[in-house]
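Replying to the earlier thread about multi-chain prediction with a worked example.

Input:
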Amino acid sequence: MSESDQNILAMESISKAFPGVQALDDVSFTLKRGEIHCLVGENGAGKSTLIKALTGVDHPDSGKITLNGKEVHVRSPQEGQALGISTVYQEINLCPNLTVAENILIGHEPHKMGRIDWTKTNALASDTLQRLLGVDIDVAKPLGSYTVAIQQMVAIARALYITSSKILILDEPTSSLDVNETQHLFSVMRRLKNEGMGIIFITHFIDQVYQISDRITVLRNGKLVGTYYTASLSRLELITKMIGRSLAEFDDLTKTKREIKKRIKSEALLHADGLGRAGAIEPFDLELHAGEVVGLAGLLGSGRTETANLLFGSDRPDHGSITMNGELVHEYSPLGSILRGVSLCPEDRKADGIVDNLTVRENIILAMQSSRGWFNFLSLPQQYEIAEKYIKLLEIATPSPDQPVKNLSGGNQQKVILARSLATNPKVLILDEPTRGIDVGTKAEIQKLVLSLAEEGKAIVFISSELDEVMRTSHRIVVMRDRVKVSEFPGDVGAHEIMQAIAGSES
Amino acid sequence: MLQQTSNFFSKIRKFIPMLSTAFLALAAYGVGAYFFVGMRNPQVFFNLFKNSSYLLISAIGMTFVILTGGIDLSVSGVVALTSVSSAVLLREGWNPWVVILLMLAMGMTIGFIMGNFIVRLKVQPFIATLAGMWFARGMCFFVSDNAVQIDHPFFQVLGKTKLLIPGLKELAEAQGTQPPYITIPVAVGFILLAVTIFITAYTRFGRSVYAIGGNEGRNEQSARLMGLPVDRIKLMVYTFNGFCSALAGIAFSVFVFSGHGLYAPGMELDAIASVVMGGTMLSGGAGYVFGTFFGVLVLAVTQALIQFIGTLSSWWTKIVIGALTLTFIGVQSVLANRKASRALTPQEMKVVRRKQLMQAFGIGIAVVALVFAVNLLFKYAPEPAAQCTVAPFRKEDAANLIKDGAVIAYQRVAGPRCVDELFGFYPDGRVTGTDGVNKVENQATPAEVEQLLTSIAVDNQWFTAEIYDTFLTPCRQCFVHYILVSYNGQVKGATGTDGTTALPPFYLSSISDLRPLLPVINPAP
Amino acid sequence: MRKFTKPSFTLRSITESRLFFPLVALSLILLFDLIFIPGFFAIESKDGDLRGSLIDILRNGSTVMLLAIGMTLVIATGGVDLSVGAVMAISASMAGILMNPAALRNEVFFVTDPYYTFQPLWLVIVAALVVAIICGLWNGLLVSYMRIQPMVATLILMISGRGIAQLITNGVRVQITYAPYAYIGQGWVILPFSLYIVAFIFALTWLLTRKTAIGMFIESVGTNFRSSFFSGINEKRIKLVVYTFCGFCAGIAGLIASSNIKTSDANNLGFATELDAILAVVIGGTSMAGGRFSLLASMIGALVMQAITQSMYAVGVPAFALQAIKAVVVILVILLYSEQVRGFVRNITAPKKEV
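Result:
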C-alpha cells in the first residue's frame, strides 16, 4: 500500500488570516490510520487554528482537506462529527448539569415507543465507558460531580460512541491530569490506535510527546516547520525546531542561581505559622527570605495553588497566621497583601489574570491603582510611562500600549500579568504556574527573570508542574502531597529524592 | 443518622427547590384555611386554578425559554393582542375554531420572528423580546382602540363550563353542598403541564434544552461542539413560547370575556417569578416544569390570602410577591454559589454539604415561620375600628330613582365612616340623599346638574366601552361606588373602588365631578 | 522604543469610535425630521427662553437621559437595574406626601395655594432622594453581597416598588401644586431647567468615573470580576456604589417627571422608562455583558429614543402606534450593531494593503 493510501486525512496548503495576523500560512498536515500524531508549537504557532479548520469551527481561507482520498468541506462541527472527526478539548466541552450517560449519548438516545429509553441509555453509556476505556462509574449522576480526569474520559467516550470516529483530536488533555490519570489516558489512546484510529495529540509536555507519539509535526508562527518520526528526532532537535534558539541559555540559569545564593538574607521576610484552611490545605509553616526563590513542587491537587492563595490572602485561613516584617497580618485580602508588598500571579491566566477588554496599559497599572485607592488616580502620562517601562523590560510583544490585552498571545499575556505585579513594587512575589501553556522561548525568559528579581532582593515563590523548571530556578524546594506540606529540600537536591517525596511511601 | 439523612437528601437534592415551593404554597393555604373559614370551601381552592390558568399556561412556555438561559418579555403583549384580536374577529362573525387556530398561529409566528432575531442576528433575548412586547401591544391598538366584549356563545361555553371533579362530586352530593369544579382552561393547563413534563424528561428535544442552558452560558458552546442543533432548538423554544402565550391569551379572553390592548400588564413578571420560584435558575440548565406549577400556585395563594385578609389593599400583593421571590432567589443563590469551580475532595464535599443542608433547613423554617407570622399578625392585630362590612349595591333602588326622573343615581359605600349612601340628581336641580335611615335634600341650580351630566356622559365618555365595571376589596378607608347615568335615552351603570389601579380612565374624574354637589347626610346621634 | 502617539483621524478611527453608531442613528432621525416635518428645526425665543421641537426633545428626554447615566454604570458592571421606574415612583410619592400629607386621609384635599407646602422644598427633595438612595442601596446589597443575579434582584423591587409607592400615599394620586417644585420640570432659564440638572449630573458622573479610578474599576469588574479581585479591586463595593448611584439618578428623574405632570402617580410614573433607559445604553454601544462604557454615547442613545417619540408625534402618529414604531426602530438600531453590519463597515474602512 502506498504512503498516501495509508493517510486517513490530508490537509494541503491551508491558510487562514484574522484581522492583523496570518494565523496559518500554507500549512500541510497528514494523519495515518492507526497512528498517534503529535502537533507541537509555541503559542500563536497555529495549532488550534489548524484544528478548528479541520473540525468545522472555522473555515480556512484556502487549501484542501481530504478524508480517505475524498475531498471534503467541513462547514460546521456537526458536519465534522458526521464525517468521523471528534474532538476533546482542554475545557471539556460537555454539560456538567446533565448526567454522564446523557453527555455521552445526547442527540442519539435510544427510543422506545416514542420516548427515550433511559434504562437502555444508561446501560449503553456504562458499557461504552467500561469496554472501551476501562472506566466504571455511576452514569446516572451529573457529570459535574466527577473529576476532570473522569470528565475527559466521558468526552472521549462520547467521541467514540457517536460516530464510528476515524479521527480523534485531543487538545491539551493532560494539563489537568495527574501522573496516574495521564498514564490511563495513554493506555486508552494506544488501544484506540491499535484499532485503527488516527489520533492527533496536542500538548506542550515534551516528555509526553516522546512517550506516546509516532510522528511529530512542528508549527512555528503559522508556518509548517516539518513533520518527523518521533523515533528519529532527539529532544534537543525538537526544541530547537520549536524555538529556533540555542539551549545554552538554560545552562546559564544554573550558574546565576549559584551566585545569588550567597546574597540571601537570613531573617525571614514573611513567616507563615500553622497556616491552614479546612478542606483546602493542612496547617503548614513556611518562611520566605529576601533574595531567595522557593519552589513548590507536587502533583496536581497537592495544594500548591491553595498555598499560594493563602499566602496572598485571596483565600482566608482557618488556622494560623502570617507575620510580615515582624508584624502580624490582620487583613487577609488581595488589597491588603498588595499594600503590604505581597503580589500574586494567578494560575489561571484567562479567568483570574487578564482583564481582556482593557488595554495593555490598563492591565499593567491595575493593581497599582487599586493600591492607591479610588481617588488617587494615576494621570494618563504617568500610566503610559509605567506601561512603557514594563513593556520594554519584559519585552512584551504588542504594537502599542493601547492594544486590548485579548489580542496578545498567551506568553505575552503572562508577561502583562507579571508586569502588573512588578508595578506594585512587591517584596514578595508569588508566581503560580507562570510558564503554563506558553512557548519554550518565553519560558526561558521568565525563568531568567525570576532569578534576576531574586537578585534584586525580592522573595519569590515559584510554582510549576514541570519539575525541571522548579529545580533549575529554586534555591529551596518545598514538596507538597495531598494537601500537606511534606518536606523541604535545598535547591541542589537530586531529582530522584524529590520524586520520592512527591510520590510518597507508595512509590 | 446524620449520614443517612445526608444521603437521602443528596438523592432528592435536585428536587428541594421545587418541593419547598410546593410546601410553601400548601402550607400558606393551610394556614389561611385555619384562620379564614371561607378558605375551607374546596371551591375556593379550585378557584385558585381557575383564576391563574392563563398564567400557568404562559409560565410553562416561559420555563422552556428560561431553561435555555434566555428570557421572553413579550408574553403579556401577545396575550393582550390575542385577547383583542379574537374579540374583534368573533364580533365580525368568524368561526371560533378558526379564530383559535389563527391566534395560535399568530403567537407562534411572533415567537418565531423573535427567535430569529435572537438566534440569527445574535440580539440579546432581553432586547429582542422587549421589542416584541412593544410591537404586540402597539398592534393591539391598530385592531381596536377600546375594549371589546366577547359575547360569542362558544367562548362563553369555554369559559363557563364547569368540569366536575370525580370523587369530590359524589362527596359534595352526599353532603348536600355544591360540587367543586374547574373550568376548561384549567384542564387545558393541566394537559399542557403533563405534555411538557413528558417532553422534558423523555424527548431528545427536551434534554437538549437542558444542555443549552446553565453553567453560566458555557453550556451553549459545549452543546454546539457536541453537535446539537442549538440554533434550531432555541428557535423552537421561542416559537413554543409564542404558542403558549397565545394559548394563555385565549384562556384569558375566556376568563374576562373581553379583549383590550391594556390587559395583563406586567404579566411577564408574574410568569418569570413563577418559574423562578418553581426552582428554575435564571441562568438555565436546571429546574423542573412541575416546579413552575407550584410557583404559579404560590402566586395564586398569595392573591387569595390578601383578598381574604381584606384589610390589605391590592398593592400589598405586589409587595408580598416581591418578598417571596426574593426569599426564593436568595435561597437559590446561596445554594448555588457554594459550587466550587473545581471538583472537591471528599472531605471538602462533606463540609460543604453539611453547611448547605443547614442553610436549606434554616431558610425553609424561616419562610414557614414568616408565613405564620404574617397571618397571625393580621388576624390578631388590633382593629382600628369595627371592620366595615361593604354593603351590597342597591342597583334596583338606583334604577328606581332613574325611573322617577333622576338623571344620575350614585351609591357610595364604606369609606372612613363606613356609610351606605344613595344620591339622586334631578334635572330641576334637586339633589337627594339617603342612607336608609335619614333623608336629605339639597337644591342646586339646574345648570349645575346639566353641567355635571354633560361632564360625565359626554366628556368622560360614560356610554362607550371605555367605562366598565371594576371591583376589588377596598382598602380600609376607601369607598366603593356605583354610578348610574341616564342620558339621551341611554342608561348605564358602573361600579368601581377607590384607590385601585384597575379603574377605567375617567371613572375617578366622574367621582370628582359628583363630589362637590353631594349633600352631607348626618347619621342619627 | 514605542512612544505615545496621537490618535489619527483616519476614516477607520472615526467609524470605530464609540460614538459613531449612536450619532449615525441620531442623524438619520434628524434627517427624517428635516425632510418630513417642516419647522421641526425652528427655534424661537420667547422672553429670552429658547423654544422649539429640538428643545422639547431635550426637555422631555431629560428623565431618560438621567436614568441612562445611572444605568450605564450598572450595565458596565455586567448588571442591569429594572427597578428604576419603580424608584422614580417611590421618590415622587415621597415628595408628594411631604408637600401634601392630607392626601393620606383619603380625602380629596384640593390645595389651591401654589405656595403651600407642608414641608420646605429642600426637605422634600432631600427626603425623596434619600429614599431613592436607600432603594439603590437595597439593590446593591442584593447583587453584591447576596450575589443574586441583577435581573432578578432588581425585578423584586420592580414588582414590589410600585406597591411601596402606593403604600406611601395610601393609594391616592397626590396632586402637586407647589409652584417652586413644579419649576424643576417646567422651569426655563434660556434652556429648560431640567437640562441643567442633567448636565450637572453628567458632569459629576464624568468626573467621578474618568478623573478617579472608579471608571476603570467599573470596566474591570464588568469585564472580569475574578481578575479584578486578584488585582485588589473590591468588586462588592464597586457594585454597591454603582447601584446606589443608579437609584439616586432615578430619584432625581422621579422628581422631574412628577413635577412635569404635577402628580405623583404611583402606577404610571416612569412606567416602562426602565426599558427606555436600558435601550438608550444599548444604543449607546455599551455591551450588556459589561466592560467598557461611554456616558456620552448613552446620552445620545437617550436622545435617539426621545427624538423618535417626538418626531412621530409631530408627524401625527397616534400614541398607541408609537409603541410599535419604537419597536421597529429599536430593531433597526440593534441590527446596525450586529456583528454582520459591523464587519461590513470594518471591511470597507480597512486600510489598504501595501502592494
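The longest helix of chain C spans residues 235-261.

Feel free to reuse this layout for your own posts.
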